[in-house]
Amino acid sequence: MRTLLRHSLAISLIAALAACGGSDEDEDPVPTGAALSSIQFVDNDSYYPMDKLAANGTVLTEGAANYGTVNSKRRRGDRSMSVWGIDTSATGPAGSAIEYSMRIDSIVADSAALSSMQANLRIDPATGLIYQQCSGFPNCYDNTSGRRQEFKITAIARVSGSARTLERAFTLSVIAN
Fold it and tell me: Do 121 and 84 belong to one domain?
């Protein structure tokens, strides 16, 4: 009798799931992705994008073994785009496209600095690559505050057609020039 009852319950559960079309997650998936690490820069020259710093505070040069992600959108010699990139890519169900956006908030920066960072920092909506693009002074972000400025960057990934998102945040710090 117990075996019959157990099988009846299992069949009822399967029938109920089939009738309602499965779970909402199947129809409204959320991408997955690794945590994003905080990163620091120095604003050496407000005419060009910021320079990436190593953990010990030294400026990283393009080609250094520990440089990390490179901005694949930049053409060699293009000083209006950062050499560095920040990979925020995520993974969705097989065959799905992911759309990316970002939000930039101030942690320790005034409204002018926030506005400038929002104007300079970009995210590729198809790949999730974050980079800086600007066209010289006064259009490039310039940390003239005399102190470290910090921004909370929230990378947002969404499977095309889905309402649910994956949001991951990290701190972007900029040492003053």
Answer: yes
Collapsed DSSP state (helix, strand, coil) of residue 19: helix
Identify which of 12-26, 58-72, 154-168 has the greatest average pLDDT.
Answer: 154-168
Helices (H), 65-158: 111-120
Residue 45 CA to its chain's centroid (Å): 25
Helix, strand, or coil (residue 79):
coil
β-pair type (149-159, 98-108): antiparallel
Count Cα neighbours of 147 within 13 Å in the Cβ-side half-sphere. 6
Report how many domains make up the chain: 2
105-132: per-residue pLDDT in tens?
A: 999 999 999 999 999 999 999 999 999 9
- Backbone conformation region of residue 68, classed left if phi is above 0, alpha if psi is from -120 to 50, else beta: left
Distance from C-alpha of 99 to C-alpha of 66, rounded to nearest angstrom: 28
- Supply the range of the domain harboring residue 20: 1-25
**Residues forming beta bridges with residue 84, ordered by sequence position:** 70
Q: What is the CATH classification number for the domain harbouring 168? A: 2.60.40.10
Question: Cβ(97)–Cβ(159) under 8 Å?
Answer: yes
CB 127 within 8 A of CB 67: no
Verify that 129 and 55 share a domain, yes or no.
yes
- SS3 for 96? coil
Identify the three-state secondary structure at position 24: helix
